[in-house]
Design brief:
- The protein is about 80% helix and about 0% strand.
- By secondary structure, the chain is an all-alpha fold.
- The longest helix is centred in the C-terminal third of the chain and has 22 residues.
- The protein starts with a helix and ends with a helix.
- The mean pLDDT is about 95.
Length: about 110
Amino acid sequence: MARLRWINQQLAEAAERQEFRTMAELNIQFHEAICEAAHNGMLLHFVRQIHDWVRRFESTTLAHPGRAEAAIAEHERLLQAIEAGDAELAERLAREHMSNALQVRVAML
Protein backbone atom coordinates (compact mmCIF):
# COMPACT_ATOMS: atom_id res chain seq x y z
CA MET A 1 0.00 0.00 0.00
CA ALA A 2 2.85 2.36 0.76
CA ARG A 3 4.26 1.89 -2.73
CA LEU A 4 0.87 2.47 -4.34
CA ARG A 5 0.30 5.64 -2.32
CA TRP A 6 3.81 6.86 -3.15
CA ILE A 7 3.22 6.32 -6.89
CA ASN A 8 -0.14 8.11 -6.72
CA GLN A 9 1.51 11.02 -4.85
CA GLN A 10 4.25 11.23 -7.49
CA LEU A 11 1.49 11.25 -10.12
CA ALA A 12 -0.22 14.16 -8.34
CA GLU A 13 3.05 16.10 -8.21
CA ALA A 14 3.73 15.46 -11.90
CA ALA A 15 0.18 16.63 -12.67
CA GLU A 16 0.85 19.91 -10.87
CA ARG A 17 3.89 20.40 -13.13
CA GLN A 18 1.90 19.20 -16.18
CA GLU A 19 4.57 16.60 -16.97
CA PHE A 20 2.36 14.43 -19.14
CA ARG A 21 4.93 11.77 -20.09
CA THR A 22 5.91 11.32 -16.46
CA MET A 23 2.24 11.14 -15.51
CA ALA A 24 1.58 8.45 -18.12
CA GLU A 25 4.49 6.32 -16.90
CA LEU A 26 3.52 6.72 -13.24
CA ASN A 27 -0.04 5.76 -14.10
CA ILE A 28 1.25 2.59 -15.75
CA GLN A 29 3.44 1.88 -12.71
CA PHE A 30 0.41 2.30 -10.45
CA HIS A 31 -1.71 -0.19 -12.38
CA GLU A 32 1.09 -2.73 -12.66
CA ALA A 33 1.88 -2.39 -8.94
CA ILE A 34 -1.70 -3.35 -8.13
CA CYS A 35 -1.33 -6.47 -10.28
CA GLU A 36 1.97 -7.32 -8.63
CA ALA A 37 0.46 -6.87 -5.17
CA ALA A 38 -2.35 -9.23 -6.15
CA HIS A 39 0.25 -11.86 -7.12
CA ASN A 40 -1.73 -12.48 -10.28
CA GLY A 41 0.68 -13.18 -13.12
CA MET A 42 -2.01 -13.53 -15.74
CA LEU A 43 -3.57 -10.19 -14.79
CA LEU A 44 -0.15 -8.56 -14.89
CA HIS A 45 0.49 -10.05 -18.34
CA PHE A 46 -2.79 -8.69 -19.69
CA VAL A 47 -2.31 -5.26 -18.11
CA ARG A 48 1.19 -5.02 -19.58
CA GLN A 49 -0.22 -5.90 -23.01
CA ILE A 50 -2.81 -3.15 -22.66
CA HIS A 51 -0.08 -0.73 -21.59
CA ASP A 52 1.94 -1.63 -24.69
CA TRP A 53 -1.08 -0.64 -26.78
CA VAL A 54 -1.74 2.53 -24.79
CA ARG A 55 1.85 3.70 -25.24
CA ARG A 56 1.20 3.84 -29.00
CA PHE A 57 -1.10 6.84 -28.57
CA GLU A 58 0.63 10.17 -29.05
CA SER A 59 -1.04 11.68 -26.00
CA THR A 60 -2.21 10.48 -22.63
CA THR A 61 -5.76 10.78 -21.35
CA LEU A 62 -4.19 12.46 -18.32
CA ALA A 63 -3.54 15.51 -20.52
CA HIS A 64 -7.29 15.96 -21.06
CA PRO A 65 -8.59 18.81 -18.87
CA GLY A 66 -9.56 17.52 -15.45
CA ARG A 67 -8.68 13.88 -16.14
CA ALA A 68 -5.44 13.80 -14.13
CA GLU A 69 -7.12 15.09 -10.99
CA ALA A 70 -10.05 12.72 -11.48
CA ALA A 71 -7.76 9.72 -12.03
CA ILE A 72 -5.71 10.52 -8.94
CA ALA A 73 -8.91 10.73 -6.87
CA GLU A 74 -10.15 7.47 -8.42
CA HIS A 75 -6.85 5.82 -7.50
CA GLU A 76 -7.20 7.06 -3.93
CA ARG A 77 -10.74 5.70 -3.57
CA LEU A 78 -9.55 2.38 -4.97
CA LEU A 79 -6.70 2.24 -2.45
CA GLN A 80 -9.13 2.99 0.37
CA ALA A 81 -11.36 0.10 -0.74
CA ILE A 82 -8.37 -2.25 -0.95
CA GLU A 83 -7.19 -1.19 2.53
CA ALA A 84 -10.68 -1.78 3.89
CA GLY A 85 -10.68 -5.26 2.39
CA ASP A 86 -13.81 -4.43 0.37
CA ALA A 87 -13.21 -6.47 -2.79
CA GLU A 88 -16.62 -5.71 -4.29
CA LEU A 89 -16.15 -1.96 -3.92
CA ALA A 90 -12.58 -2.18 -5.23
CA GLU A 91 -13.80 -4.06 -8.29
CA ARG A 92 -16.58 -1.55 -8.94
CA LEU A 93 -14.19 1.38 -8.56
CA ALA A 94 -11.62 -0.24 -10.86
CA ARG A 95 -14.29 -0.80 -13.50
CA GLU A 96 -15.48 2.80 -13.19
CA HIS A 97 -11.87 4.01 -13.45
CA MET A 98 -11.37 2.08 -16.68
CA SER A 99 -14.70 3.26 -18.07
CA ASN A 100 -13.88 6.89 -17.27
CA ALA A 101 -10.50 6.60 -19.00
CA LEU A 102 -12.14 5.00 -22.03
CA GLN A 103 -14.69 7.80 -22.28
CA VAL A 104 -11.91 10.38 -22.22
CA ARG A 105 -9.86 8.46 -24.81
CA VAL A 106 -12.87 8.30 -27.16
CA ALA A 107 -13.52 12.02 -26.65
CA MET A 108 -9.88 12.75 -27.49
CA LEU A 109 -10.11 10.77 -30.73
